[in-house]
Amino acid sequence: MKCKLELGNGKDILFWQDTWCMVRPLKEVFQDLFRFVDNGLGTVDNLWCQVRDEGEWRLNFRRNPYDWEVDSMRRLEGLLKDFSVLPDRSDSRTWVLDPKCGFSVRSCYRSLQANSQEEFPADSVWRSIPPSKVTFTMWAACLLKLPTIDSLKRRGIVLANRCEMCGVTEETCNHLFLHYKVASELWAFVAYSFNISWCIPQSVEQLLFMWPKVKLPAKGRKLWLMIPHAVIWTIWKTRNDVIFKGETRQFDKIILFFKGLIFHWSRSLDWASRYRFEDFVFSWESLLKSM
Ligand SMILES: [Zn+2]
């Protein structure tokens, strides 16, 4: 991450994965386009077509961009105009933190200390109350590393990508957890329950950056901070039950599972210990008002 890659012949630089033409890898900056690239692990020279002294970029996508992806595609094409592959020169790396002397553990450690709070919403991921399998799932969802169909395809598994939950589009992590119909209904239920208005963000990572900033009474705060984990775990469990056990996805059942999680996780909170499971199921709204 702290290495600056200087483009030469492009044989040692992964086009989407490495940081070479921007300050972040292209797969992060152009997440929408990365979903339908043909080969997410291709090197830069794979996508460059050299004819004598001239060359041009030949990006490989599995389909044409949809209307809402055209702007991103233009931005990427505009960006690439400033770069060209130099067939006679090898790619090189410079240690950004100390270009003169090169890599040292000291410079690496200092930079990790300085940046650890900014780049990843770690505090929001590793909450103490939800079980570790849930926090791990949240961590993987943030980094787009859960085995959703798009992710499996990027790892080279040959699969048709159709979201099993809605059947209308491709399955990606952010679609599944934020934008697919039942997920957005679950988020709407949460917003209604806590009487807040908000826009569903683009990614799970963005969600975790903004979630602690929503204004709520101090008393319910610990419960509030667990909500994203409960929603993500509910949807992931439902999705896996649909795919692997052939179960149906009824919204009532999804809400019940979600409330069950909140009930179990809230046992350690003083105010919640006086409520029974039935209160969470049948008196949800009045219970939240009593916080
Ligand atoms: Zn879907």
UniProtKB/TrEMBL annotation:
For the keyword Nucleus, the answer is no
In this entry, which stretches build a coiled coil? Answer: none
Question: Which domain of life, per UniProt?
Answer: Eukaryota
Which InterPro entries does this entry report, sorted A to Z?
RVT-Znf
- Source lineage: Eukaryota, Viridiplantae, Streptophyta, Embryophyta, Tracheophyta
Q: Which GO terms describe its molecular function?
A: RNA-directed DNA polymerase activity
Q: Which UniProt keywords apply?
A: Nucleotidyltransferase, RNA-directed DNA polymerase, Transferase
Q: Does the keyword Nucleotidyltransferase apply?
A: yes
Organism, per UniProt?
Answer: Macleaya cordata
Q: Where is the Reverse transcriptase zinc-binding domain?
A: 103-187
Q: Which protein is depicted?
A: Reverse transcriptase zinc-binding domain
